[in-house]
Amino acid sequence: MMNPDALSTFFAVIAERLPACGNEVRRVFHGRGRCYEGLEQITADWLGSGVLQIAIFKEDEAAFYGALKQGITEFQHGDVWKEVGGNTIVVQHRDREGAETETFVGEQPQQINVVENGLTYKLDLGKRQNNGLFLDMRLGREWVQNNAKHKRVLNLFAYTCGFSVAAIEGKADQVVNLDMARSSLSRGRENHQLNQHNLNQVAFLGHELFKSWGKVKKYGPYDLVIIDPPSFQKGSFVLTKDYAKILRRLPELVVEGGDVLACVNSPDIQPSFLTEQMVECAPAFEFVSRLDNPPEFEDIDADSALKVMHFRHSAR
Q1: What is the pLDDT of residues 204-253, one digit of tens each?
Q2: What does UniProt give as the signal peptide span (predicted)?
Q3: What's this model's pTM, rounded to 2 decimal places?
Q4: 124 found inside a domain
Q5: CB 50 within 8 A of CB 14
């Protein structure tokens, strides 16, 4: 259980971080990194346009919810909320089936356009568990934008195509997005359009990966491959079992000197999982570095946090 008395720290951290966000989307409190005792199951994201979204991940006692409601009431009347132009505070209940969203201040928009690193993405609020952009991958998207110039990019498990948007903005020649959820790819198309990108440079493949290697190879070979899978996707992907199947295909997909970003976001999987699997399944790919995570996603154990590992296809 979380500690209602610790909520003073929760709101103090948010108040300290909000003014620096401007209109950019940003995590402003990350309890799940276990750096704040008594607040391990709560986060807060500033979405810009005056919207603060709080999320609770595990059911708690009535006293905590009461204290949170009181804290929100006090916070909305404070100087920082006025300074940043705040108008809406919602609480997403990831602690309840359906992940329902409560509106505590203002009116909840069903959709909102957010800005990250100057790029625009459309998010859904109150409809589903994930709103359309994983904020802990901010520096990963920035790395892709900075390293995509004149490259052919393959974006596996593309979701709403955040990496693709970053790559095209970074002047990639071509991006191929693959995801079995066609609705996510449709949102990815919208995200590109929001940024006035040329869709002739972007392909959207709504297929299950392991049945579609022929289609994927047809667009290659690639200078950069991004692998950012879910830990578990019923009937299609189990990370610990299926990641190796992707890595074994890399030599035929990636040009010599090409790059791979291999990602894992399961707290139970160590970084060594990826480096060891790469040695076993694709030994021509050398480990270069692990990308930093955004500082706002502080974690008591770095190996439990998001792992974004950079490998390069060495010429031998």
Answers
A1: 999 999 999 999 999 999 999 999 998 756 666 888 889 999 999 999 99
A2: none
A3: 0.95
A4: no
A5: no
